[in-house]
Amino acid sequence: MVQIVAHRGSSGNRPENTLPAFAEAVRVKADIIELDVHLSKDEQLIVMHDETVDRTTNGKGRICDLTVPQLKELNAGSWFSDEYKAAKVPTLKEVLALLAARNYRGILTIELKTDHYDYPGIEEKTAALLHSQAWPFVHWYCSFNIDSLDRIHTIDPEAKLNFIMGKAADKPALALSRPYIEGLHPAYGWIEANTETAAAFPISLRPWTINEEAIMLDCLQLGVTGIITDFPEKAGSVLQAFREEQNQ
């Protein structure tokens, strides 16, 4: 079964990494929901892609220099559409509560954003929160930073881990060198340049960010494990049509 991964939630039609984006990903039954976490100045787990708030809010500055009260003053939706002007920067705890309230039964994969800043203790804090209660969903972790994956494996050894990469030639071998890494998440450019390697790759492959129907079909024909996309509902429709065609 090919997995549809909602990249930062349903970020093609909602402001990325916000509660509306995650609620929409649940509604369209995404198999996996992906999000990114950082640590704020007061050491809370914050869900946002960039290290700064500049691109996706009306504020400026690094997350690590701002407290939760300061982050909560920001508008995290108007950059996308006035319809979402009430959207705020969520904490990971708030996202987990939303997914639990919506009885999400899929997989939540948490990207540890330690590839630019090494947030001391982020792995421990994330794992502690995920193990603080029972959730209806399964949790995984992913990162560009292999050291972060090594740390989280020690802390949360039962969780599946995925290594993210762009086009770096050395990363596939690095992923395969760790038996606890379940899959590789490469940029689609790597898939394009390495179709034979990708077709026979021994662990799961979920390329990003696949938003065009033609590229979705290319990935499906290649036999990838999952498709990371900003448009999970669209990807689900493409997958359904592909399956029906294959069964004819």
TrEMBL record:
Domain of life, source organism: Bacteria
InterPro entries: GP_PDE_dom, PLC-like_Pdiesterase_TIM-brl
Record protein name field: GP-PDE domain-containing protein
Family annotation (Pfam families): GDPD
A GO molecular-function descriptor: phosphoric diester hydrolase activity
Source organism: Candidatus Enterococcus testudinis
Gene3D superfamilies named in the record: Phosphatidylinositol (PI) phosphodiesterase (3.20.20.190)
BP-aspect Gene Ontology terms: lipid metabolic process
